[in-house]
């Protein structure tokens, strides 16, 4: 990218296109005017988007894209079995239509969010889960996505934790090799009883050899256990995928040290998607999404100013 201009770099870093790009690019350039040409701030490649867990679950695909555009949440992880109906049973023509909808919008299809898990003691069930996940890897590829979210989803009662971790790792390696052939990433959500403890996730990933498999940070209260957030973050940060889940930042019913998390992301120059996986039913989730986007972007700008880290040369 040595010959990349500042303007094309900004476009690539946002990964946006379509009619709204010019306006967003202008806003970015206005913010970046004080930076020397050819340099950027640490953390500037993080992008904000949505997981359609509860907010957006009832929107069809055109509505979803339109609401994300309005909120300036330019990436979306589509949960399966929701109203957008981007599922493995789509025909090739339907997949092309989904891809075109996103290609014509500044909103990026980050990939499907699935519930496939690999902790089961039943080997036939594990094989079934792997094969099911492969179908959604192909779906993501065909629709323009970059990866698939899956889960460990728990330690099995009566089975040594080491054995379950090894089984999950082997399954992820199989799936990761398949995904790599399609240019896709496997994003392993920090989820499930026992498996959402970061030391357990580290044990799993100590045995994951496929570079196409990474950890999707999930902003759980378990992140604060033991030696605390920074220690647990550092345990696994070198295996992060390009997606991270957060919850509503100003939700008093689910307090989480998001400022500390932001500090850690900026310091490591995280380059992935920060995807809102918010809880609760709202009268106007599109408005709430826009508010969360504004909060996150302000927090990012304030953190970059406060930390005042050395600028990074654009290569």
List the helices and strands and how they pair.
Elements: H1 6-14, H2 21-31, E1 39-40, E2 47-51, H3 61-71, E3 75-79, H4 92-103, E4 108-117, H5 123-143, E5 147-151, H6 161-181, E6 185-189, H7 198-205, E7 213-217, H8 229-236, E8 240-246, H9 258-268, E9 273-276, H10 285-307, E10 312-313
Parallel strand pairs: 2-3, 2-9, 3-4, 4-5, 5-6, 6-7, 7-8, 8-9
Antiparallel strand pairs: 1-10
Helix pairs in contact: 3-10, 5-6, 6-7, 7-8, 9-10
Which strand order does the major sheet show?
A: 2-3-4-5-6-7-8-9
Radius of gyration: 19 Å
SS content category: alpha/beta
Q: Helix tally?
A: 10
Distance between the termini: 6 Å
Low-confidence stretches: 1-33
Mean pLDDT score, rounded? Answer: 89
Strand content: 15-25%
Note the main sheet: 8 strands, parallel, barrel
Helix content estimate:
40-55%
Counting DSSP E segments of at least 2 residues, the number of strands comes to: 10
Order of helices and strands: HHEEHEHEHEHEHEHEHEHE
Task: Describe the fold and architecture.
Mean pLDDT is 89; it is low at 1-33. Helix 6 packs across helix 7 (198-205) and helix 7 (198-205) packs parallel to helix 8. The strands form two sheets. Strands 2-3-4-5-6-7-8-9 form an eight-stranded parallel barrel, surrounded by four helices. The chain is globular and about 55 Å long. The chain is built from ten helices and ten strands. The termini are close together. With 315 residues, the protein is α/β, with parallel strands linked by helices. It has helices spanning 6-14, 21-31, 61-71, 92-103, 123-143, 161-181, 198-205, 229-236, 258-268, 285-307; strands spanning 39-40, 47-51, 75-79, 108-117, 147-151, 185-189, 213-217, 240-246, 273-276, 312-313. Strand 5, helix 6 (161-181) and strand 6 (185-189) form a beta-alpha-beta unit.
